[in-house]
Each structure stands twice: as structure tokens, then as C-alpha cells.
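2 proteins. here.
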Amino acid sequence: MVSTDKRAAAPSTDDPQASPAKPGGTAKRQLPAFAIIGVLSTLFYLGLYVVARWVVDPQIANLIALAVSAVANTAANRRFTFGITGSEGALKHQLQGAVAFLIGLGLSSGVLALLDYAAPHASKVVEVGGLIVANGLATVVRFLLMKVWVFKG
């Protein structure tokens, strides 16, 4: 009797229910997963920002929202984009992901500072629009860092 269970042919991981994605993999396979995670992470980040913005200034709200969403984003990309399961290397990956976080923080903080300078009474909608642009730029950098450094195959 021939088994049709595709997991049997997949590389072994700590999780027997893991997707057959190989660590590393091709950008063609990784980009759709990265994009979905990116959209969900951005929505999560913006939601956290808007809630935090009710009680703190824009820079602090940005720091809080970005820090929380960056940890979740790195964990999700580790698992679903780059196919890495188990706890081995997770802390190292989070620390490396912190570099992408710092770049994103620099971009988003810069946008908020520019808005404060150029339009000191800008609405929260304008703030969020600026953050979407900054997050888009940071996303490109994040994917490249994760692909070539953090989760290199």
C-alpha cells in the first residue's frame, strides 16, 4: 500500500503538522505569505497606534504599536513565510528582527516628526496615512533583511 501523506516526504521539523515549506525557500513562494502577514501586521499595528494615540503622544503610540506588532510579525514570518518551526533559534531571530524594527521605527518616527513640523495640527487620519507610507517602505527593507540575513536558507 502506497502512502499519499505528503508530510511524510517533507523535511522533518519539530512540528509534525508543519507545512511542507522548506526553511529558506524561493521568493516566489515566500512573497505571498509575506504579503498576507504584512497586511495583517499593518492592520494590527495601525489599530494599536490608534488606541494608544488616545492616551499618549504620536511618538510613544508609534513605539508601543510598532514594538508589539514587530514581535508578532517576526514570529509569523518565521513560521509561515520562511517555514521555520520549533523554538530553536527563535530568540536569535527576534533579536535580528529587532534591526528591521529599528529601521521601521526610524522611518515612522521620522514621518511623525516631519508631520509635527510641517503640519503641527494634522489630524489622526493624516498621521495614519503617513504611517502607512513609512510602513510600506519599512516592509520592503524587512523582507530583504529577513530573506538574506535573519532566515537565510
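next one coming up
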Amino acid sequence: MGELEDSVMTRVWKWNRPVTVREVLEDLQQERSIAYTTVMTVLDNLHQKGWVRREAEGRAYRYEAVSTRAAYAAALMNEAWSQSDNPAAALVAFFGMMSEEQREALSDAMRIVQGPNVQGQNPPNPDAAEREAER
């Protein structure tokens, strides 16, 4: 996603409901000067890429996210990881960039994915994993 597409999707994800071009435009205009047709084109592009679905409402459309921001982030990470010629080294480098809070969220997520507690491990903290997933 480009920077403007990301700005638009951030609003669609944050509002978590079908939105109009006008609603997105008015919110974006608080940060920058932008034309209605530009926002309309961006939402149309996001629709063509499969990131939003749209439903006609009168002469306009309402747009809604197809998946969550967390799912989008996971897809990006998976794509980057799968393109590495050394996935283990890429993971080590990625983990080395993480903050302590991010490593805790990763540990929590791993415990959630692995299922019931492995003996000796602390119970997962889904709130921490969810907070990190929303970033």
C-alpha cells in the first residue's frame, strides 16, 4: 500500500463501519489539502486490490474493510519472510529489532497459537498480543 492508501485504510479500519468518500475526505482534510476525486480514486483502487468492498447507496458507494489491520500486517510479514533466501536469519534479525513489549506480545501470541499451556509456561496474555497486533 502506498502512503495515501494507508492513510485511507487507517480510517476505514479505525471506524470499523462502512464509510463514504466524503467522510474520509473530511477527516483527511484536517491533515492535508486533498481533492474529493483523489479520495474517490484511492478507495476505488483499494476496492480493485481487494482491500475494501463497496455497496451502492444512492449515487455513491459505502466502503468497508475486507479484513483487519492485524491481518494486513500479518500478510505483509508473511510475504517479506517468504521472499527471504534465509528465513531463519530474517526472523533472527526481525526479533533483534523488537522492543521488550513486542517480544512479550510475540511470546503470548505463540502460546495462544500453540494451544493449551505447555507445562512450566505462564498462561498467555491475549490482551498484550491483541494490543501489539493492532499496531
